């Protein structure tokens, strides 16, 4: 029995990686992060590769692949700190619309990159003192914080009861709300009796989308952390002190070895979590929680150690290592911090009320 990616998935990863290497160099990432450019051109290129339609059925204009394929792509995007709305438009939105069987007319436009759908799920995951969403008579009022994709055409908004509504971005007051990770946009959305279409009142639809998003985000962290290890090892081989490469120092060897030992088991964990989403439903929810939480912790540890290997150079924009560091930090916080996600896992296992 073979445990690993299929030939098709390996070719998919190679295609995405080649595109990113040719079209999204670090200088382009800097421009997007600084606001000089947007992620529109990157997303158009990924659209030509079929990335937005990965999880959309073929009869709706998509590619019709599965969660593990989305995990493979997310790994590549994280490794290149790619600016894109992949998590919201290619993962969460298609999952909700397909699972709910609503507004399937939007799926073709999503797959073709003609529209982008952002997501505001924060209020259904963890209560915030200064944000809440109320629904009355098919109208939304209130505020969402840290919604994904400032440039979206529509937003899927989840309430505390895990009901999901679709709103037009043009009907809302959308304000950019930057985080440490400037490669992906987040925003504050204010609703003033905004017309909202009920997409799903079934909490299972919200949960399915959240689980898939958490595993994909863990894969993004995996890719970012692996890149930081590779950069640390490469730097240690050429940086010299006392007329010898620092890679020959035992302390530096131990740091690099420890990072690799911590991260490598995460690869099979992420792959299996992606596989379970579509094939082992009885394990999928618990695996999604543990995978998101564990990669958040390992990602933070690896990003910190890799920066230390670089010494003072690790903090400079010349190397740009901080983009991957911040990517791991953003992924740790978004869609549930490790403590909250582990609490959910404990409830699933009956270990907490």
CATH superfamily label of the largest domain:
Butyryl-CoA Dehydrogenase, subunit A, domain 3
Helical content (DSSP H or I, runs of 4+): 40-55%
**Strand composition percent:** 5-15%
Could you spell the SSE succession in H and E letters? Answer: HHHHHHEHEEEEEEEHEEHHHH
At the first level of CATH, what is the class of the largest domain? Mainly Alpha
Read across the widest sheet, the strand sequence of neighbours is: 1-4-5-8
Give the count of structural domains.
Answer: 3
CATH architecture of the largest domain: Up-down Bundle
Describe this structure in words.
The chain has 353 residues and is α+β, with helices and mostly antiparallel strands. It folds into 3 domains: 7-111, Orthogonal Bundle (Butyryl-Coa Dehydrogenase, subunit A, domain 1), CATH 1.10.540; 117-201, Butyryl-CoA Dehydrogenase, subunit A, domain 2 (Beta Barrel); 204-348, Butyryl-CoA Dehydrogenase, subunit A, domain 3 (Up-down Bundle), CATH 1.20.140.10. It is built from 12 helices and 10 strands. The strands form 3 sheets. The protein has a 4-stranded mixed beta sheet. The chain has a 4-stranded antiparallel beta sheet with strand order 2-3-7-6, with no helix packed on it. Helix 4 (67-79) runs antiparallel to helix 9 and helix 9 (250-279) packs antiparallel against helix 10. The longest helix is centred in the middle third of the chain and has 36 residues, at 203-238. The protein is globular. The relative contact order is 0.12.
């Amino acid at each position: 029995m073979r445990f690993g990616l299929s030939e098709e998935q390996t070719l998919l990863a190679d295609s995405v990686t080649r595109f990113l290497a040719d079209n999204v160099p670090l200088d382009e990432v800097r421009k997007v992060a600084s606001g000089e450019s947007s992620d529109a051109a990157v997303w158009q290129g990924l659209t030509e590769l079929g990335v937005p339609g990965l999880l959309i059925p073929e009869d709706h204009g998509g590619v019709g692949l599965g969660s593990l394929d989305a995990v493979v792509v997310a790994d590549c995007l994280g490794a290149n700190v790619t600016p894109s709305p992949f998590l919201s438009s290619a993962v969460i939105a298609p999952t909700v619309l397909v699972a709910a069987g609503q507004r399937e007319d939007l799926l073709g436009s999503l797959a073709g990159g003609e529209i982008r759908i952002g997501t505001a799920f924060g209020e259904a995951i963890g209560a915030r003192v200064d944000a809440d969403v109320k629904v009355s008579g098919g109208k939304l009022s209130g505020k969402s914080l840290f919604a994904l994709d400032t440039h979206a055409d529509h937003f899927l908004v989840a309430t505390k009861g895990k009901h999901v509504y679709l709103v037009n971005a043009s009907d809302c007051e959308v304000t950019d709300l930057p985080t440490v990770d400037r490669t992906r946009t987040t925003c504050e959305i204010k609703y003033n009796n905004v017309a909202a279409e009920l997409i799903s009142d079934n909490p299972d639809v919200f949960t399915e989308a959240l689980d898939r998003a958490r595993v994909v985000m863990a894969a993004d962290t995996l890719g970012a952390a692996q890149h930081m290890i590779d950069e640390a090892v490469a730097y240690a081989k050429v940086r010299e002190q006392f007329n010898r490469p620092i890679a020959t120092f035992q302390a530096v060897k131990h740091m690099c070895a420890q990072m690799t030992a911590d991260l490598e088991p995460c690869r099979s964990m992420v792959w299996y979590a992606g596989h379970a989403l579509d094939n082992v439903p009885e394990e999928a929810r618990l695996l999604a929680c543990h995978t998101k939480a564990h990669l958040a912790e390992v990602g933070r540890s690896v990003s910190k150690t890799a920066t230390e290997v670089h010494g003072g150079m690790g903090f400079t924009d010349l190397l740009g290592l901080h983009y991957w560091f911040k990517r791991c930090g953003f992924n740790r916080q978004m869609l549930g911090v490790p403590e909250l996600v582990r609490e959910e896992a404990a409830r699933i296992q009956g270990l907490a009320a």
